[in-house]
Amino acid sequence: MSRILLQTTIMDQPDDWDIGRFALLADELRAAGHEVVARNRAHHGDDPVLSVLDDLEFDQVWLMAVDTGDGLTDAEADAITRFRRGGGVLTARDHQDLGCCLTRLGSLGLVNEFQDTSVDQSHLCDDQDTPTISWPNFHSGANGDYQPVLTTDPVHPLLRTAHTTSGRVEWFPAHPHEGAVSASIPCATVVAEGRSSASGRRFNLAVAIDGETFDGLPLGRALAESTFHHFADYNWDLGCGAPSFVSEPPGGQILADPARLTVFKDYVRNVAAWLHPVVPTGADAAPEARRTVVL
After folding, report:
1. CA–CA separation, 129 vs 143, rounded Å?
2. What is the DSSP letter of 216?
3. Percent of the chain beyond pLDDT 90?
4. Is 46 exposed, middle or buried (CB count within 10 Å of its CB: 0-12, 13-18, 19+)?
5. How does pLDDT run across 142-178, given as a tens digit for each residue?
6. What is the rounded CA–CA span in Å between residue 46 and residue 158?
7. Please, which residues have CB within 8 angstroms of residue 7's CB and are 6 or more apart in sequence?
8. How would you list the strands of the sheet with 60-64, edge to edge?
9. Assigned domain for 290 exists
10. Alpha-carbon dihedral of residues 74, 19, 225, 51, nearest 10 degrees?
11. Are 139 and 177 in contact (CB under 8 A)?
12. What is the CATH number of the domain that holds 63?
């Protein structure tokens, strides 16, 4: 099983999407047998964990990019990039330019799409109910509701489950304004698509990077999610509450039919298994020494 760092890009802020809003995700990963360290940034400036991530004994990082642009320092971005030489990384952000610190992460930044003021992207603004939120955003439904997952054959292994007749995960938690991710680089594959309930337009829910190399050496797997709301407590259980600035009326589908959320948690477990580093064989089998940190 993996040693997972579940990390946000903001400091402790109870009335924001800080790490306390992802407690159910941490519990689910622990229930699957993983060791999880869940934390926010310690302070402004280089974080004592993120800035030396490649030296620490983690196998994967689940990075909830909930900042407005200042979520990673140069030293932290460099350490995460080096970490990918053996470790797996998941990124999850949201609408508009939320989490745009991810642009510092090389290929992971490229598959996470943000505003481009040089071209007209206004057609990527599906949420008409919250005019303060700009593009890109895709309206998959209300918080607390489900959205159907659209796939093509063959189904990506991350979506496989024994708990549906189709053998795949069919529903993700919905959100009124999801961000944009794309398979815009070699080795990137669209895992799942959604459909805007406002415009009917299809958009990517998750993009996987597998088989990427740097200087001839393999990099760990990575996964980019269109929104961290796929994993937030509020989107799994409305009773957990949301920050005070959330104004959209919630839905009640997950409360009425929690079985589909149970199936989605198979996806969470699949992601954690898939991101676990592949152990090399032969002459390259000796790993670099990493040190333990007390948190």
Report:
1. 13
2. T
3. 78
4. middle
5. 999 999 999 988 999 999 999 999 999 999 999 999 9
6. 33
7. 19, 38, 39, 40, 49, 50, 61, 62, 63, 64
8. 35-39, 3-8, 60-64, 88-92, 222-225, 202-209, 188-195
9. no
10. 20
11. yes
12. 3.40.50.880
- 265's torsion region: left (phi>0), alpha (psi -120 to 50) or beta? alpha
DSSP 17-57: T-GGGGHHHHHHHHHTT-EEEEE---SSSS-TTGGGGGGBS
- 289 within a domain of the structure (yes/no): no
* Residue 82 in tokens: 């080096």
* Token digits of residue 282: 């032969």
Of 125, 69, 116, 76, nearest in space to 93 by CA: 69
Q: Is residue 182 part of a domain?
A: yes
Which residues, in sequence order, are CB contacts of 27 under 8 Å at separation 6+? none
Nearest to 264 by CA among 7, 5, 24: 24
Q: What does the alpha-carbon distance between residue 9 and residue 47 come to, in Å, rounded to a whole number?
A: 10
Among left, alpha and beta (phi > 0; psi -120 to 50; other), residue 209 is beta
State which amino acid sits at residue 22. Answer: F
Given this model, what pLDDT does residue 121 score? 67
* pLDDT, tens only, 48-107: 999 999 999 999 999 999 999 899 999 999 999 999 999 999 999 998 888 999 999 999
Could you tell me the residue range of the domain that residue 229 belongs to? 3-284
What span, in angstroms and rounded, lies between the C-alpha atoms of 288 and 252? Answer: 48
What is the rounded CA–CA span in Å between residue 219 and residue 108? 12
Reduce the secondary structure of 112-160 to three states and give it as a string: EECCCCCCCCHHHECCCCCCCCCCCEECCCCCCCEEECECCCCCCHHHE
| Number of domains, the chain | 1
Start-to-end CA span in the chain (Å):
20
| 3 state DSSP class of 89 | strand
Burial status of residue 210 (CB atoms within 10 A of its CB: 0-12, 13-18, 19 or more): middle
Whether 217 is in a domain gets the answer: yes
